[in-house]
Known about the structure:
The protein has one domain: ATPase, nucleotide binding domain (Nucleotidyltransferase, domain 5, 2-Layer Sandwich). It has one helix and six strands; from the N terminus they run ββββαββ. The chain has one helix at 47-64, and strands at residues 3-9, 13-20, 25-32, 42-45, 67-74, 96-99.
Amino acid sequence: MKYLLGIDQGTTQTTAVIVDERGEMLEKNSSQLPARFPQAGWVEQEPEDIVRTVREACAPLLEKYDITAVGFDNRRQDLRRLGCGNGRSRDSRHRLAGYARAGDL
């Protein structure tokens, strides 16, 4: 059987799910993501925490299933380059920060 690994990287957690070839969700695992909310509508996260929670959410599922495809969902207003293999930020700013107001949607 073929399995899809779906990764939803959200504001406060990363969730990984396994879906079979019929589209049925078989299992899911989540990891909490630390976030700071310095003012209304703003969120700050450390890039290293994002990478860590993706690894934590996926690891038990990768050990159990033979994955044939991966889907990734992430909504960010700001992106950072991460070092290959180590997950460390390569940019001078070390925080991901973004905001959304009703008028921006």
